[in-house]
Amino acid sequence: xxxxxxxxxxxxxxxxxxxxxxxxxxxxxxxxxxxxxxxxxxxxxxxxxxxxxxxxxxxxxxxxxxxxxxxxxxxxxxxxxxxxxxxxxxxxxxxxxxxxxxxxxxxxxxxxxxxxxxxxxxxxxxxxxxxxxxxxxxxxxxxxxx
Length: 146
What we know:
This protein is an alpha/beta fold. 40% of the residues lie in helices and 19% in strands. The chain has five helices and five strands, in the order αββααβαββα. A five-stranded mixed β-sheet has the order 2-1-3-4-5. α1 runs parallel beside α5. The protein starts with a helix and ends with a helix.
């Protein structure tokens, strides 16, 4: 999670919402990503999706079997759905997202019984640091608009 937090700070320095993600397989980071929808003009360029794309290339497989995805913010519906389709084994996130979280806060896509895969979930890892980064980012953004 520490590396995901570094990537979130990297995103923030570029004017993006500070979210970072890493994917681990066999205790090795195989992929990473940070939010880039503004820079890339791509609404799907969330940290988790970019990390999953990189992991799929690294593994030469669209199935991310036996991987763990670490992310600084609870995934949205788009990212949670992609994790299910990619067969990510485990999700570890820092801060919950009470507005759009899809790993238990608003939706629970990663455990939905109608889907053919369930992702193991652990939340709250380094929650304070990641939540503070996000809160400060949005506070500054609101103040800059005034």
